[in-house]
Every structure is written in structure tokens, then in C-alpha cells.
Amino acid sequence: MITTENLCVSYNGRTVLRDATIEAKPGSILGLVGPSGCGKSSFLAALNRLTEIIPGASVSGRIQFDGQDIDTAFPSSVELRRHIGMIFQKPNPFAMSIRRNLELPLREHGIHDRQHLGQICESVLRDVGLWDEVSTRLDQSALNLSGGQQQRLCIARAIAIKPQVLLMDEPCSSLDPMSAERVEQLIDSMRGQYTILIVTHNLAQARRLSDQITIFWTEDGVGRIIEQGDTETVFNETSNAIVDSYLTGRKG
Amino acid sequence: MRSDQSLTIITRALAVISAAIVLLIVLFLLRESTPALRQLGWSRFFTDASWHPLSGQFNLTPMIVATLVTSSGAIVIAAPLGIGSAVFVNFYAPRRLAAWHRRLIELLAGIPSVVFGLWGLVVLAPIIATFGGSGQNLLTATIVLGLMVLPTVALLSDTAIAALPREWIQGAAALGMGRSAIVGWIVLPGARRGIGGGIILALTRALGETMAVLMLAGNIVEMPSSLLSPGRTLNANIALELGYASAGHRSVLFVSGLMLMLVVSVIVLFVSRREGTRRDG
Amino acid sequence: MKSIIATSSLFLLCLTLVGCTSSPSTQSGSSELSGQLTLTGSSTVAPLATEIAKRFEQQHPKVRIDVQTGGSGKGIADVRLGVADIGMASRPLAADEADLTAHRIAADGVGLIVHDSNPIKELSQEQIIAIYTDKINNWKEVGGEDKEITVVHKAEGRATLEVFLKHFGIENPSVKGDVIVGENEHAVKTVAGTEGAIGYVSIGTAEADIESGVRIRLLPLDAVKANTENVASGAFPMSRPLNLVTANSPSPLASTFIQFCQSADVHDLVKSQYFVPITSESAVAK
Amino acid sequence: MDSGPATSRAIEVRHHWREFCVAVAVWVAATSVICVLIWILADIAIRGLAEVNFGFLIEDVQDAGRVGGIGPIILSTGLILLVCLVVAVPLSFGTAIALTERLDKESWFARNVRRSLDVLAGVPSIVFGLFGNAFFAIALGLGYSILSGGLTLACMVLPILIRTSEQAIRAVPAEYRYAAAALGMKRTTILFRVVLPVAMPALAAGVVLSIGRALAETAALIFTSGYVARTPESLLDSGRSLSVHIYDLAMNVPGGGSKAYATACVLVVLLLAINAATALLLRLAGLHNRSTTGGSL
């Protein structure tokens, strides 16, 4: 579904990620793990060109979407981001009502019919298991929701525009354990419908969720990929000593 | 601890002095305008036939209208340009250009009003005069006033926009929203309080501006019939007439100063109260 | 801790000092002529008074004379309030100003000015009144081009305004102006920037401006050319005295200064400011 | 995808249009503002710069300003600013310290002081002129003098100065105070030894900013410090500030135009220098990191 070749990211001329080559299979969950500052988040941001709005960031290398170069498949970033959604570490609903949070991106993508908008809202809220909790207060501010609810709303907002790929940047790390578990269950239930790339620091979560796993590591301040493969294979029989000590908690 | 106490006492005393200045101003305005108010009452300032203080006619209404027209007109000019500038430096300008743009706007904020007045009189008025008349009218004054208060709107909007959480903008971008949609749906609504505050502050600046308006507005005391008709603001009236005013007339001018002060205080207090309740929003 | 108290009390000290130095700003001079004089008032007289004051100070180094402008009315008001020792007024004193004394130092004419592209040659008394009272609105009606007339008028209290109104016998409330200005140069700039404009300013300043290439033209009045010679000879009808105004008992220093202003020693200065010197006989005018 | 590819194409075209129009509007707004600024500055420079030279800056005002320089004007302006700052700086630093003494929440006292300062900030400059004329010049008997003008300006810049000082003090990280307090230092010591030194560049920037505001003021000075264009001998003498000189030359003196523009050039250059100084001081204080957020979307 999405592949990269020799992807490099640098900020103001300082390279933070070098030669990242991955392949995310359609409908699968790809876990991205590694110690802090090894370029995982930069890698995600490069995939939906969010690096464009980060001052000083530049990206080189190749990214393909469905076998096609993303620059030719989606000349505009707007169109690209419509197909590749993103969930952030900190839930970031807009300071407006729950309903408006969901409808705004939909309207932006040309859906104006009231009834249709209502249907989509309900169905995505059901998909993320939020409908029963918020159906009576759709017009209240989204900021009044708990952290976990906010994060699920953000996921609902992202899937409302029906992307094929979802990028998740540590979606559970700022949530309390109960909410984190809810969100993790939700992500697990989305397997097969979306291609998901998830950055996480929680190795147990990565092992539970991901089909494939990619391990990043920092060398001389530059991040790069040191291991990738099917999750269970990597966890059980890696030949890389660093990876092994990282996965078993002795390093990183 | 003695020194701590004396510090508190001294600084508080200084704070009281600072705060008392505004009361002192009101007190003196009241004192100086009492003779006129006692002799004429309030109503004559609105019901007299016209403003001819030497002939005993004291209608301030046309000047109040001219003051409000020029100030609100200035906001109509300054708000879109100022907000546009703020959006420009935050979302459209290349980084180097943004820094320069900010610096130039700050410079614009520092240009003295007499210089604006001079430029308006010598450069702008002859251009406006092609619509007829001398070019010294409410339109010219409004345009120059708009330019003068524009930096206030631009700089405060800039601050408000820059203070927005980066996550909102990233989140909106990640949802595939275009740049204009992010600005229109997320940024401007999110920063509306800061932008609104900037506009209100600009309004008080416009209400308080004297010299440039005096040089440009034509200074006729008459109910303006269009933007192209000349008019005199309360400020310009004080500056024009205080110099030669004799006792009674001087007192009337203090009344118009008092009125100006009242209008501005009401606006400022309204805003500060609104800001006080900001946390509920 | 001590340093803090010291610093804070220093601040307070500064404040008190600043608040207390409110001694009166003028002291009248004694026989050896020292002290300070404050002149305020007419913006027409001020440049002349400044030049005379400079010469006076050169002769009496211990004397200091401050000259401020703001209009004749301000000069009169300031003398009454005691803010100024001498007021400057470019008009005779009015009836309700009898508590003061006027000392005439020069004369000036008030002339009508139009844009220099305006072909109009002369306006009659009636035409001017009609223009200023909004009965005539187009140059066509007085024999000029088809162009709207922009009437430039002065703010109440300016001496030129009073001279003008008195000469033409118009009540100020009946005047319908298009622009009201405070200062002479504002009037000149407005007329120079507007082809259809008419205004009135001190002939002295108008001549100075014309000399430096400003696009205005003085109109003759009652067939008398508006220039300083005709003001000097008394031929120009709309003229005014330039007065120094004092309370009835001026200080010795003020008296000496006024005498100096009226002496022949300063005629060159009066002429250099485009005004007309007066002969010493008519020195004290009311 | 509910909306088919055909409509999706149409939406994209519409988006492009909208992006284009908004971008054009924003660029036009920003460019036109800058163009007008350049227009004004160029106009002043063309008409006045030729007259500016070192002699102009120090020579006496002669023939009502038509000849000579602006030496006394610069001196008067400096003295007015000096009076203004000598009064305003201690007052506002003291007030700012009083307003920031409780960092957690606003006391009744602070709220009302701040409210009255907000009103003061909105007072029109001509009203300051009225007040200064009635209070300093007449009631206190200072007459038209540098002292009257400086004190009036002090009242005028007070709100800005207090606001910037307050921000400067608040910008000092609370950890510094905690660390100092944990070492058993007194509040006064913490303030003078820890907080104020750190806040100093930002405090100075506030002072510089107020100087800029005071320099630009005309209306409040005409009726307080007066018009006298000569070298003042004491603070009780009247003195003409640069902006009043510009107004007087342009509006009162036939043939004073070029000198008026020359004075305007001097004033604008001064203000430029002040702007640069503020930016530098704020950068030293680490407050001006906004430029890092600039960028494109």
C-alpha cells in the first residue's frame, strides 16, 4: 500500500533520518518502534507531507502509494492527506462542537448535504465506540470530553473522510491506562479496513497490535532503520544484538 | 521580614499613584468643565443649532458623529489589511520575508502622526481631490487614520495567531484541509479574541488620534452627508480651539474632552471585563 | 536590604523633587535688565517676535525671551491666566478685552488667495460675501471657469478670520466653508493643492510662499493690489495691526522689550518677515 | 468513497481556485501595506534627506526654522524624554512589581490597578494635553515648560511601560524564584538579585518602546511644553519637541517645508534606531522567538 525508498528527513540541514526503506502492506498494521529522537515521528510526517508546514524541514527519497509515486498520484498535499490520515500523540480536537469537529473536514471535501453529514457522523462515532457516550451532546464543545474520548473523536474525524492509510504517532501515550486500552482495542478493530502505521514506545503494545514491525535506532544523532519484519519473527528470532537487547528491555 | 514589608508597601504605593493618575485626569476634566456644565447643562451640547462657541452655540453632535465615522472607517480599513498581514507572516510569507514584514509593520507603528498628516496633506489629499473639493475630507482622514492604527491590529493579531496551539494547525492539515480553509476555519476563529482585542485597541487609538485628523479632515462642523464631506472630530476641535479659547469656551472644550474620555473608558472597561470572563469560553 | 530602601527612597525623592520645583516661570527684571519673558499668541506675530527677541537678547545677555504660538486668542487668554507676560495678537483688541493693553509693533494685510491656475482677475466685495455665504458655488458665476469653489476658512479665534469677517461684515455662523484650517500655512497648502479653492491669509506669508514657488496667487481688493507696499501706505483696505498685549501694568522688563519692538532698530526685521513697520507716533493703539 | 471521482475532481478544482484567491488576497493586503509605508518613507526622504547633515543636527534654529538646524529641538526633546523617564520608570517598575507579587491569581488590588491602567492606556493624547495644561502648567504653576511636557508624557507612557515591565517580570521562569526561595532567600533579595537581573533586557526594551511612543507625540505637548524653539536653560523653560517642530514648520512657517521634511527624516531615523534597539534587547531577553514559528503551510 505504502512504500518508501531511501527516505531522508533533515531540519535546517541537519539530517535526523537517513535511508528509511519500508513497506506497509494493505490492511495491515505496521509498528514503528525505537528510542526517542530516532526520527520515527519525522518519518510519519514525511509520509503525508506534514513536513511542509514544519519550518526548515526537508525530505528526500521516494514514497509510493499503491505502487505510484505520491508526487504524481497526488500533486496537491490536500488530496494526499485526504488519503493518508494522521492521529497525533496529543488529542487535538478543534475548539468547537463535537459535530462541527466531524463535519468541518467533510465539508472541506465537498459534502454539504445535512442528512448525509449526519449519517457519516453517526457511523464514524459508532465505529470508534463513542456514539453511546456523546450522541446526546453533539453540540457541546469537544474540549469537554475526556482525553480518551478526545482521541477517539480524532480518530473518528480522521476516518470520516475515508482515508486508505492512517498514520498514528503514539496515539495512546498521553492517555491514562484505561483510555489507552480503549483506543488500542479500537485500533485493533480497524485492522483490515485501513493500512495503519503506528509509532509507539510501548513494546508490548507494538507486539499486540502490529503485523509487521520496523525498529529505528540512532547512530551519531541520525536515525535509521536497523530491523524490520513480521512482528513475531522479529521479537522471537532477531539476529541483531542491539534489537535483541532493545526488545528485551536492556537497552534504549 | 522588614525589607520584604517595606518593598510591598513602596511598590504598592507606586501602584496606587499610577492608578490614581486616571482619576486625577477625570477629576481635572470635571473641574474644568463644571462651569460649562452648570451653565449650559448637558442637553445644549446636543440640541443647539450649531457649533459657534463665540456666538453661544455649542452643538457637539456633528463632531461626535465625525469622530465615530472616522474611527470606525479606520477600523474598516485597518482590520482586513491588518489581519491579512498577520495571516501573511504566519502562513504565506517565506520565513525571511515574514521577519522583514514584521519589522516594517513595527516601523509603521512608530511613525509620528504629524508625519502621517503631512504625507496625507501633501500627497494623498490632492489625489482624493480628483473626486472634487479640496481633498480634505472624512475619507482622507479615515484612510490615513486606518493606516495609523493598522499596525495595532496587525501586531496583536499576529501575537494571537502565533499563540494558537501548533497541534490544531497540524491536525487540520493532516485532515487534508487546504491552507485557506485552515486559516478560515481554524486559525481566525481560534484567534478571534486576540484579534478582537487588537481591533478594539485600534479603535481607541483611532478615537484618540488628533494631529493627523486635524490636518486632513477639513474641520467643518457640519453633519457629514457623505464620506467626501469634510468634518471635524472632537480631538481636532480641542486642538484647533483650545489655544485661543477664553474661560467659558475653554470649559466647553473640556466637556468635549470629558466626552471623549467617557467613550474610550466605556470601550476599555467593556473589553477588560470581557477578558476577565475569558476562562469560561 | 539597606540598598533597596535607599534605591526606593531615591525614586521617591526624584518624584518629590519633580513635584516641588513648581516655582513661577518668570521673574520680572530689575534695573540691570535680567530675567525672563514669555510671549504667546498669534502665529503671524510669533516669527517676528522671535527675531526681535533674539536681537534684544544679544543686547541684554541676561534676558531670556520665550516665544510660543497658538493663535491671537491664546495670547490674550494666556496673559489673562498669567501664563505669559506678553501676548501676541494680530488684531485690535475686542470690546470685552478692555482689561488689557495693546502695543502695536507692525501692520499686516489679509489677502485673498486662489490657485495660480485660476484665471479670475478680481472679485468684488459682494461676490466674496456671496462665495463665503454659500450663495455662489461655481467660478463660472463670477466670470471664471466652470469649476466648483472650495471655500477655505479659518477656525474661530484666529486673528485673520476676525479681520476678514469684520472687513466684509459677515457673521461667522453664516459662513459656509468647505475646509476650516487653523494655521496660515495650512490654508496656503490647501489652496495650492486645490484648483478651485479660495482662502485668505496674511499677505506677508502669502508673498513669502509665492516667492518660494508655491502655486497660489493674491487677489487685489477694491482694485488695490495685495502687497506689503500697499499695506504700508495704508492703501490696502483689509489690514490689521500686529499687537503685543499686556496686562495694564506690565513689568519693567516687558515695557522695555515692547519699546524696543516699536523702535526703528527693528524695522529691518519687520520687513524681513514681510510685515510693515509702523511709525512711532501711533505706537500705543487700543 | 461516497463522493465519486468525478465530483472529487470538481472539488479539487474549486479548492485550487479558493486557495489561489485567498493567497492573492493575503499577498495583496500585505504588499499594499508595505508599499504605502515605503511610499510615505520615500516621500519624506526625497523631500528632506538632502537637508540633513551634521550641521543641521547641531545648529541653532534661525528665521523661524527656515534656516539653520534643529540643535535646540533635539536638546529639548531629549530633556522632555529625560523628565518623562525619570518619573515614569520608577513608577512603572514599582507598579509592575506590585502587580506581579502574587503569581498565582489576581488580587482585588491588582485587578483594579490594572483596570485603571487599561483606561489610562486608552485616553486620547489630546486629553492628556488638556490635563497636562490644566494640572501641570496652570494648577501646579509650571507654565509651558519641559517639566510640564515631560510629566504629561510620563502619564501617557505609563500604561505601556507598566504592561511591558509586567510581562518582563512574569517571563522570568518561576523555577528561578522557587530555586532561590528554596535556598532561603528573602523576597526582596530574590527580586533584586534573581528576578530583575534576568528581566533587565526586557525591561529595557519596554523603556525603549515608551521612548518611541513619547517621541512621536505632538498633541499632548503643544499645550504643555509649548513651542519655544531655542536652547532651554532649565527644565522650567519651554522647549519644542521634534514632532511639534515638524508641525510648526509645516503649518506655520512659509517656506518651512523642506526643513519640516528634514526634521521628519531625523525623527524617523531615530525611531528606526529605537525599533532596532527594542528588537535587539528582546532577543537578548529571549522573548522574541516568534520568528521560529513563521513558515509556510
What does this structure look like?
The complex is a heterotetramer of chains A (about 250), B (about 280), C (about 290) and D (about 300). Chain A has about 250 residues and is of the alpha/beta class. Chain A has a domain at about 1-90 and about 165-245: Rossmann fold (3-Layer(aba) Sandwich). Helices cover about 40% and strands about 25% of the residues of chain A. Chain A has helices at about 40-45, 70-75, 75-85, 100-110, 115-125, 130-135, 145-160, 175-190, 205-210, 230-235, 240-245; strands spanning about 1-10, 15-25, 30-35, 55-65, 70, 85, 165-170, 195-200, 210-220, 220-230. Chain A has a six-stranded mixed β-sheet with strand order 6-7-8-3-9-10, sandwiched between helices. A four-stranded antiparallel β-sheet of chain A has the order 2-1-4-5. In chain A, helix 4 (about 100-110) packs parallel to helix 7, helix 5 (about 115-125) packs across helix 7 and helix 7 (about 145-160) runs parallel beside helix 8. The two termini of chain A are about 30 Å apart. The model of chain A has no long low-confidence stretch (mean pLDDT about 90). Chain B contains twelve helices and two strands, in the order ααββαααααααααα. Chain B has helices spanning about 1-40, 45, 60-90, 95-110, 115-130, 140-160, 165-175, 180-190, 190-210, 210-215, 235-240, 245-275, and strands at about 50, 55-60. In chain B, a hairpin with a 4-residue loop joins strand 1 (about 50) and strand 2. Chain B is globular and about 70 Å long. Chain C is built from ten helices and ten strands. Chain C has two domains: about 35-105 and about 240-275, 3-Layer(aba) Sandwich (D-Maltodextrin-Binding Protein, domain 2); about 110-235, D-Maltodextrin-Binding Protein, domain 2, CATH 3.40.190. Chain C is elongated and about 65 Å long. Chain C has helices spanning about 1-20, 45-60, 70-80, 125-130, 160-170, 185-190, 205-210, 230, 250-260, 265-270, and strands at about 35-40, 65-70, 85-90, 100-115, 150-155, 180, 195-200, 215-220, 240-245, 275. In chain C, helix 5 (about 160-170) links the parallel strand 5 and strand 6 (about 180). The model of chain C is unreliable at about 1-30 and about 280-285 (pLDDT under 50). Chain C is α/β, with parallel strands linked by helices and about 290 residues long. In chain C, strands 1, 2, 3, 4, 5, 6, 7, 8, 9 and 10 form a ten-stranded mixed β-sheet that branches. A two-stranded antiparallel sheet of chain D has the order 1-2. Chain D starts with a helix and ends in a 12-residue tail after the last helix. Chain D has two domains: about 1-50; about 55-295, MetI-like (MetI-like fold), CATH 1.10.3720.10. In chain D, a hairpin with a 4-residue loop joins strand 1 (about 60) and strand 2 (about 65-70). Classes of the chains: A alpha/beta (about 250), B mainly alpha (about 280), C alpha/beta (about 290), D mainly alpha (about 300). Chains in contact: A-B, A-D, B-C, B-D, C-D. The interface between B and D is large, with 103 and 93 residues. Chain A: Keywords: ATP-binding, Nucleotide-binding, Phosphate transport, Transport. Chain A: InterPro entries: AAA+_ATPase (IPR003593), ABC_transporter-like_ATP-bd (IPR003439), ABC_transporter-like_CS (IPR017871), P-loop_NTPase (IPR027417), PstB-like (IPR005670). Chain A: Pfam families: ABC_tran (PF00005). Chain A: This is Phosphate transport system ATP-binding protein. Chain A: One of its GO terms (biological process) is phosphate ion transmembrane transport.
